[in-house]
Each structure stands twice: as C-alpha cells, then as structure tokens.
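User: Please predict structures.

Assistant: First:
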Amino acid sequence: MSTMSRSRTSLSPATSERSTLPMGASAEPDSPEFKPLEPTREELLTHFFERFKFYTSLCLGTSAILAVFAFLFLIPFVVEPAIQTILAEFAPEAGICAVSEHIYAETLTNCTWASCREGCTTTHTKCHKIRVNLARRPFEENAPVPNEWDATDLKFLINPEGCGYPPRVNCSEFASDYAGKKAPKIFPCYYSMTRPELVVARYSWDTTIRGLILALVLPTTVFVFSLSVLAYWHCHCCDRACNRRVHAESFASKEDSKLLCELDEDPSDDVF
C-alpha cells in the first residue's frame, strides 16, 4: 500500500510545481512556498506550432473549398467563352464594317437574338439587333466606304459571347456608338475564319488567353497546394511514406533500402 500511495503521489499535479523549501521539508500545495514551473522554450515552440498548424489547416481547407466553387463558377463565364473564341479563329486584323440594319425590338418573341445583352444568363424582353456589311480587308482610318462587300447583313455582336455585365458592357451606349445618328459610316470589326456569320466589335487574343490561363491555373494551384499541405500534415500514410523515402535515400545500396522498407512495413515497429 505504501508503494502504491507513493507512486500516486509522484503522479499528482504537485509534480508540475517547483518547491522552494529545503529538502525534507513539507508544505501545503496552496502555500506560497510552491511556485509553478515555467514552460521551457521547446514547450512554447511546440504549443505555438500546434496552434499555427490548426489555424493554417483551417484556412487551407477553406481555400480548397472556395477554389473548387470558384472554378465551377468560372467555367460558364470565362472558360467556355474563351474556348469558343479560340475555336472561332478571329482574324488578327480588324476588317471594315458598315451598319446595314438596326432594329430595336421588344417581347421575347422578337428578341430571339440580340447584338448586346446585359447579363449572359438572363432572357431579355428588349434588345438591339444590328446587322452589318463586311469587307475582309484591313481597316484604315479615313478610308472611303467600300463599293463591294464580301458579306452582307451579318449579325453584329458586341463581343464573341454577345453579352456582358456593366460597367464593361452597356447595350444602350453600344447601339448609340455603332448605329446612332452620330455613328461612323464604317468602323473596324473582327470576323471569324471558321464561322463566317460571326462578326464582333470587340476582340483581343491576349485578353482571351490571359483570362483562360488565370481561370484554369489559379483555382487549380490553390486547390492542389492546400490539399498537399493538409495531406502532409494530417495524413499518417503520406507522412510515413515521406519519412521512409528520406531515410531510404541515406542508404548506399538497394539492399539496405529494401531492408528499411521491410522494417517500416513490419507492424511490430509501430510503437505509437
């Protein structure tokens, strides 16, 4: 009984406190002679790392989830239009266009297509329909109106998607700039090599490629990085595999590396 009581005393909370009394003296645990042990530098660093690991893991997990939703959101708004624009193969140099017809229509029946739409996911009951004549030769300032056109009465869109969001896209201003009273007789436009009926007012190869790369690379990079760090910190199998590789590289021969892997696979070595 004395041995068991002594062992229990040694495991009591009083062992985490430092006594200032001389050896052999005794005092009550709540007496001022007892002073709590100050944490060591290693303990402080361990505690700090654990808190840092917890909050960083929380942020990385949130970032990975947001990256997935951002990628799904960018597919219909950036990725798909950019791919369609690339497949359309617009001419690098702007051609010459002139408005042949402008109709302002209302109701869903009359707005089956529109040169401009403010919002790519909504159906509009009011729309501007602009058709143009096209000359497939480079546009020059102050050039005369061509006598002959390569194509006539083509649908004229504000951009390859035919839609956008304010303030970048304003359909009233677009209609006024190209089909208003003060609109020029001829203006630059971009035509497609693979879709002869497609003519747009705004097109930029660099902007299209930049938007596609950013929409694909940024969410993917954030997701892969976050998932890799979380797997390294919290996946026991990944951590063990990484440590096994580090130890295996320190051996000179393949036999030693094989022996080390066999020892790692032995379940009797898993102490913890």
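Second:
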Amino acid sequence: MKAWRDGDCDGGGDEWAEEVELTKQAVEAVNQLRPRPRFMVLCGDLVHAMPDTPFREGQERDLKAALKGADPSIPLVFVSGNHDLGNTPTPGTVEQFCSEWGDDYFSFWVGGVLCLVLNSQLFYDASACPQLKEAQETWLEEQLSRAAASSSTEPKPKHVLVFQHIPLYLKTPDEEDDYFNLQRAVRQNLLDRFKKAGVKAVFSGHYHRNAGGCHDGLDMVVSSAIGCQLGGDTHGVRVVVVTADSIVHRYHSLEQLRAGGVDQDLRKLLQA
C-alpha cells in the first residue's frame, strides 16, 4: 500500500504493517462466519516483494504469522500470482513458491464440487519455463476431460470451479489485451475448454478492484484485495455460497463482515 501511494510499485514494499493488520482482520471476520466456510482461498499475490528481492522473506514470514490465527477447521488454499513467481516465472521462482506455500497447481474436491487451482503466470508468459507450462497443460487437459466425462467409477462433479490469479477478462471476453487480463488467444482457448468441461465460475484477483462478467453460463469473478485497493472498493473478501443448483457470491468489506456477517439473502441460502 505504501509502494502504491509512493508511486514505486516495482520497488518499495519496505513497510507492511497495514497489510498485516488487515490480514488479521480478515482472518477474524472469516472465523466468525457461521456456518464456517469449507475453505478460504487467497487468489495470488500473497506478498508484494518479487522473488529474490529485499523484504520478500520478512513479508512471507509475517503473512504466515497473521494467517496462523485462522480457525484450524478452515483450510487455507494458496494461489500463485505474479508477485509470488515474477511476471516471467522461472523454474527457480516456481520452486521457491512451492517450497513456501505448496503446489502451484492442483485439484481438490469439496462436497461434490471439483476445484482446480491454476498457475496463471504459465498462461501469461512461460518463456523462461516452457516445460512447466507443458506439464500444467497436460495435467489440466486430463482434469477437464475427466470432469466432462460420465463414468461409472468416478462421480461427475456437481460443479467445477477454477481459481487463478490473472482474470481471463475484466468485463467482456472480447476486450483488448491488458496487463490485468490474459491475452485474447489464450483467453479464448481457456474459455472454450472450461465451458466444454462444465466449469461454472473462474475466481481471480490481480486487478485490485472488483470486476468480471457472466457469458454463456460461465461466471468470471474478479475480486478486489484484502490489502491495496487500486479503485474505489474497500478492503474485503468475497463470500461464495454453493448450492446444488447455483453459485452465489458477493464481495463484503471486512468491516461489514465483522459487524454483521454475510448479507441476508446469502444467509437464507445457507439455511435452506
């Protein structure tokens, strides 16, 4: 936040007390939710400092300390972002991330819902690690094919959700290429494959503002940040309620969540 205020986003980052405090507030707000969330996902840019730069180690240490306050019954899911891996990731930066936070792409099931966590930097610029991009592509194709297929041995997911740092798009699938979205050819390829596999929603961050849209039944959800806001949104988190038929989500400010919990209509869905 200080780096943004000072206009030094490529460097900076020598102070992060504000972010630590906001993270603790977010953890406290999520812990208070009833029923407790099945998991909490951080959609990338866990810290500001790029790989192998000053302050990186201190920021990771303090983030882990702040997150230790999370209720042990709420698993934490970490997505890799450009600040975590570098705008052009390398085998070394990916390995560093994995050793600190876990795999950079993986899948998991919750209540009959298949969740895919992806490394979107490999979609954005894999020029320094083409083999890693190829490995994720092979794995992703296998996951999507299995999700789309009907089989007597494997249950078909009730829903398929994707979590990645960089949004496919910010407003519309045909928008121009931008720092904050994926390139059009890459975007269209992923959109086609996701729709074919029955993906209902893609959740991302990166933009530091709330954005997104819904096209052909696939919801592109862009959430703002717990920390630095680049637009008019407040520090907050997105609450997602998954039912047998739908995925309903709403961004809540930390203050609102701590004071009053989730919105009334989401609460009704949870009680139904």
